[in-house]
Amino acid sequence: MSGNELRILIVDDNPDLRKLVRMTLSYLDAAVYEAKNAEEALQVITKEYPQIVILDVMMPGKTDGIEVCRQIKSSIEMKWMYVILLSAKGQERDIQKGLSAICDAYLVKPFSPLELIGEVEKGAHTQEVSCAITFETGSTII
Amino acid sequence: MTNEVTTRSVSIKFFFLMVVLGLLGNIFSPTLFFGIDYLFGSVFTMLALRFLGWKVGALTGLIISSYTFYLWGHPYAIVSFFLEALVVGFLVYKTKIKDYVIADILFWLFVGFPVVFFCYKNVLSLETSVVQIIALKQTVNGVVNTVISVLLYIALLNYKHYSLLLQALCANKHWQLSQLLRTLLIIFPLIPLMVVLIAINKSNYESILKEEREYISQTGNYVEAHLSSSINNHINEAKYLAKLYFDSGQEETKNRNELLREVNAITPVVVAGNAENGVEKYLFHSDNTLEMIQDEVLKKLFSEPENKLSFSVDGKFFYSLVDMDERSRRVLTIYPVEAIHEIVNEALSHHNAEVDILFLSPDAKVISLGGLSKLSDIHETHSIDETGLFLEPNLQEDLSKIGSWNQSYLFVDLKFINLTDLTFRLLQPTVELTSKVQQSYGDTLLFTLVIILLLVLMAKLVSNKFETYLAAWSQMLNTLTIDKTHSSVIKFGHEPSDLTPLLVSFAHLLSIINEEKKKLLALNGDYKKAARQSLNNELYITEVLDNINDGIVVSDVNGVIKSVNQKISTIFGYSMEELVGTPSSTLSAHAYKDAHNNGIKRYNKTQKSKFVNHGSVEAQGLTKLGKTLDIDISVSKLVLQNEVNFIAVIRDISLKKEYESQLHQANRRMAQFLAASTDAILFYDNYKVVDFNDIAIELFGYSKAQIIGKDIFELVNLEDPATLSTYIEAGEETSIECRCLNNSGRPFPVELIAKTITFENKLKQLLIVKDISIKKANEAKYNAVRKENELLIEKANNPIFSVNTQGDIIQWNRSVEDLTGWNKKEITGINISSIINLEPELASNFEHFLQKVRNTKYELRLKSKTNRELTILVSVVSVDEQNNQTVIFIGQDITEIDDYRKKSKLAAKQKESQLNTIFNLSPDAYVVINDVSQIVFANPAFTRLTGYDGKQYTDIDLVGFKQLLVQNCIENKAQLLNIKDNEEVTDLRFSINHPQPVTLSLTSKLIKNKNATFGSVWFLRDVTHETKVDKMKSEFLSTAAHELRTPLASILGFSDLLLRNKYDEVEQDELLNIINRQSLNLRTLLNELLDLAKIEANNTDFYSMNKVDIKDVVTSVSTDMSILAKEKQITLNHNIEVKKPAYIYGDKEKLGQAITNVVSNAIKYSDNGTTVNILLTVGRSEICVAVRDEGIGMTKEEMARVGERFYRAEKSGNIPGTGLGMTIVKEIIARHKGSIDIDSSYGEGSTIKICLPTFSNSILIKEEGGK
After folding, report:
1. Residue in B240, B1045, B1215 closest to A4 by CB
2. What pLDDT score was predicted for residue B308?
3. How is residue B1217 annotated by DSSP?
4. Is 80 exceeded by the pLDDT of residue B334?
5. Strand-pair category, A105-108 with B269-274
């Protein structure tokens, strides 16, 4: 197992949004995994051990994104992961709610790809994994 | 002599035989399970005891058990087995216990077990559960061995060849077959039980073993995972480190130093290079390690990429990893085994695993030991036995040196963690395992064993005892027959018991008694005749005595009562039986008892007494109930049948005494009376004075001597003398008043009373003369005053009248005449109750009424002569005059005031009922509180909202009321509590849950004027609905916002991507499609929102009604929805039964929207793969479209609320929707004068049926002006 690559997981019930994130993150030297609900997400996490997890707050099923974030943060083997919560609710109360679940970052839909990349980069940095970002236009950001 | 020698030589041979056999028995001892040995040595010890005697037997035991020291390494087993031999021998030889098995059981229970416990636990310091098992095992071992020895003994005896020989040695008598059988029977249950227990334990042991293996296996997995991940991390870090060095070119970055520190902690060497050049850079190294590891070694390590190697240098083991990164750089990390060790330890401690680890080199040599127990103290290398159960003796030695006794280590599982040739295994000490088993079974075994041993003991004892009893009974039976053999000894195989002699003599006694009885029977006839005769005489005498009116007590010379008659029982209360045999002093009062007894004694000594034969004396007796009694007693001597007796005649004189004292008292009283009187009292007989008191002397002025014998007419000198004689002769006892002349001739008024009384049983006449001059004077004064008063009253301005105690009017002044119109003349003597209105309970009893109003003010209602109602406020005063009581009413006419009062009361009542009606109507609660914080009013709405009824709240004050609210409060409690008494609150919202959950809004206002506060009013409004609707609205808004943002995110994102990058055509199309789709979603959402707004505004303009074929609508909706259905693999069927058109009157677009909403819901709330059916039915007046799904369904409560704005059933939480769909449908269908029917069962599906009137029907309805 080569361990230095960046692994990112995106969890959202909306396939379009997953596609969007994947395409946005394709400029990073990273492996992107997808999950469409909380159960799948946990399966992928325990299998692939991504360093960064992007969670949509509103999801069908019993558990929503905030609950999943809590589960991640309270498990010894998973709490070091960097969790970014995505939500369409921009109201004050929801931001508070998100933060209180000790997620590492919070983004409000709609977001720009640069915002997302910025958060992912921050995350990668704290995970001490190298994160090379290259856009086709040729600029390379490390 | 020869015998002796033979015997002795046999003994010696036997001794040696036993020793040898015993030692062999111990040496070849089988192991039961988990290391417990079963030794046969003590079988031979027991045999030696039996044949060679106590001392030699004990010695044999000592020698045989000495082997255990070699076996187990301590002398304490010797102690217990030696003691066994000693104690059993002692019991068998020196006490009455003959049975070896019993003796052995007794030993183990009371001596052996405790000794073992003490030695093993306190001296050897083993765990309690271990010691339990060991003690148990030894006990069982000992007892079973003893049993075996008994069996052997019996076998030997029956083997004739040996029996002769052994008889020479035998100390005991024969054994019979019966005894053998008995012994076996008693011991029988023991063996299978032990076998069963062992079997159970074995399986238990195995299951625990399995558990242990699994546990270790899991631990192993975990450790393996942890180890590989740790090592992988390190190599990654190392690679990164290398990258930093080579690519960044800067030597001083913060990151790198941090990393270095981390890496350093684990690996002493990190090296980077590549295949061609070898080591290029030592990223990190510690000198020691590097010195040891030479360049060739390093080169070799480098030569193959992705290599994992273990190697040893100078006996120290290392492990190395080589990895390549993407730029074909090689990074090498080298770990000393200790480092790996540490990692593994870390993993174990995280996992809290209680296991040990052995690190093995490729040739299975132990490199190091670790884990959480004491193994890590050993650093030497040892070889491991591959079969796994025990380590080599060397290691075992070393392990035992650590201080635990005989811990065998168990490889419960072998776990290889392959770091290429480096393996390690996980161990657990067996004793842990053992203790687990022991803990679970140790107690049960112990308990079972004790019970078994006790049972065996009991059985033995009982069987012995039983035989004894049988013997005794059979003997008794024998002696009770005519046969005279008293002393038969029944052979039972052993000595007769001690009970036999007793039984024999008992039987003998019985036979003697029988003989005597026979003799008596013969005499019976004569005896009976004589007895009958004497009995008759007795009865005659008794009857005579009983009829005498005095009590008779006959006692013997010592004063003990022999007989009493019935009268004594009556007087004293004892029954005759109770007294016979008691001393006669029982009947004496306490004060007389001693004298009584002394008297008896003295008489017996001196034959002299003051009382005996001296007539009667007065004394006191004591009844059964303890009452002292005055009695008259006379005692005489009586000689009966040459015996001296006393006969006492007792008479109850208590009554007599009573009469005497009464008389005495009466005399005294008379004297007192005479002395105390303030009037003159004269007793006369024949009209002459015979007695008088002191006052008489004073009053009449004569001396004592002069008065006696004087004629009363002379003494009581009346102005009119005839009066007195007339009065006396009249015989009436009423008093008269007349005037008397005193000594000096002056007249004064007197009152005379003549009486005849009975005194000392004689009639006495007396005359009481009272000087009433003062009284008369007072009377005159009084009359004068009264006359004055009457005048005043008459002239007074206030109405005043008086009545007597019966209520008859006595006085009636002018004022009241004027007021009432009744004239004095006509009203006097009439009872006042005829003109006054009293309350019913007072009217019945005028006296009662008078008592009630006496000395009070009272509002009296009168009827005037003209029957007008008058009200007078009267003060009532009662006056006593000359023994007549008069009640005076002094009044004040308050008729007008009263009328006014009545009117205002009525008005107030009307106002009150008006207000009450208003308050009762109100759906909101009102509470009125007075100035002392008490609740004085609450309307019915209050009861309904808060659940407190009228009775409750009038009893509590404001504080209590607040507490009651707070008790049920589920929201905003704090604010509620904080309300101060005189605080005004506006719209304070809180929720309570009793009697129903409601949210209330509280507003309070103080009732006050400029100067003071009179209280406050609390107003509670039910705002539950309001709050709910507000909440739903805000939820809807937030949901709506989210729903809008989601498609927007996609649109923005993908368009952004498209701008930034070049994509190929296919991808571009895909992305544009997504943008398009999401934009459409957004539009739909916005439309729904707008519809909502329109519903709110209730705008009817946008319906365009036409003749519409509903079939078309259904078909087009079905087509539209099929895509959505396909996505969820839902089968969408539409079924149109009729060929001809189904016309209705309506707006095609709106209807389409309605049906779309229903179908969309059906699809949304159904699971994948289910079916949705649309059924169109055409009737005469109605056309119906039914949509049926197999989705999540609704409960009854949910069904009722479908169509409520924003309402979404609970389960639909995560399915997108606004809660408006059905509202819109309802609105549209209502506009079309149709109906919606919802049928659903929770979890199974729903059917929504929309029915609309047919076109023809609608026209009719329209013409009639609508429903």
Report:
1. B240
2. 63
3. -
4. no
5. unpaired
Amino acid letter at B53? G
Give me the mean pLDDT over the B415-427 stretch: 52
| Cβ–Cβ pairs < 8 A, chains A and B | 84
Cα dihedral angle (B187, B190, B191, B192), rounded to 10 degrees?
120
Give residue B666's pLDDT.
83
Measuring CA to CA, which residue among B889, B888, B886, B887 is closest to residue B860? B889
Dihedral sign computed on CA atoms, order B769, B771, B772, B775 = negative
For residue range B584-623, list pLDDT tens digits in order.
888 888 888 888 888 888 888 887 777 777 778 888 888 8
> In DSSP terms, which residues pair with B636 in a beta bridge?
B647
Taking 70 as the threshold, does the pLDDT of residue B360 lie above it? no
CATH of span A6-137? 3.40.50.2300
Burial (CB < 10 A; 0-12, 13-18, 19+), residue B875, is: middle
Residues, chain A: 142
Which residues of chain B does A14 touch, with a Cβ-Cβ cutoff of 8 Å? Answer: 1046, 1050
Span of B347-356, B1072-1081, B1108-1117, B1258-1267 with lowest mean pLDDT: B1258-1267
More confident residue, B303 or B289: B303
Residue spans of the domains in chain A: they are 6-137
Distance CA(B541)–CA(B547), nearest Å, equals 10
Whether residues B232 and A1 touch (CB distance < 8 A) is answered with yes
Q: Decide if A136 and B1062 are in contact by the 8 Å CB cutoff.
A: yes
Residues 6+ apart with CB under 8 A from B652: B551, B571, B629, B630, B631, B632
Closest to B361 in 3D by CA, of B383, B393, B331? B383
Closest CA to B149 of B100, B191, B194: B100
pLDDT score for B1265: 52
Backbone conformation region of residue B149, classed left if phi is above 0, alpha if psi is from -120 to 50, else beta = alpha
State the Cα–Cα distance between residues B243 and B255, nearest whole angstrom: 12
User: B806 pairs with which residues across the strands?
Assistant: none
User: Rounded distance, CA B801 to CA B827, Å?
Assistant: 11
Closest Cα in chain A to B1216: A60
Q: How sure is the predictor about B256, in pLDDT bands with cuts at 50, 70 and 90?
A: low
Q: Which of B461, B416, B516, B530 lies closest to B103 in space, CA to CA?
A: B461
Residues in B whose CB is inside 8 Å of some CB of A read 232-233, 235-236, 239-240, 243, 255, 259, 323, 325, 1038, 1041-1046, 1048-1054, 1056-1057, 1060-1062, 1074, 1077-1078, 1214-1215
Amino acid at B730: A
pLDDT, tens digit (0-9, with 9 covering 90-100), for B257-266: 666 666 666 5
DSSP β-bridge partners for residue B858 = B874
Assess whether the previous peptide bond of A50 is cis (omega < 30° from 0).
Answer: no
**Which residues of chain A does B1061 touch, with a Cβ-Cβ cutoff of 8 Å?**
135-136
CA-nearest residue to A61 within chain B is B1214
Q: What is the pLDDT of residue B1233?
A: 87
Shortest Cα–Cα distance, A102 to chain B (Å): 22
Q: Any idea which of B399-408, B435-444, B756-765 has the lowest mean pLDDT?
A: B399-408
- Nearest residue in chain B measured CA to CA from A138: B1061
Interface touch A135/B1051, C-beta < 8 Å: no
d(CA B774, CA B878): 25
Contact A110 B1062 (CB under 8 A): no
Are the C-beta atoms of B917 and B899 separated by less than 8 Å?
no
**Interface ipTM above 0.85:** no
Average pLDDT for residues B1181-1195, to the nearest whole number? 88
CA distance B65 to B81: 6
Question: What pLDDT was estimated at residue B377?
Answer: 45
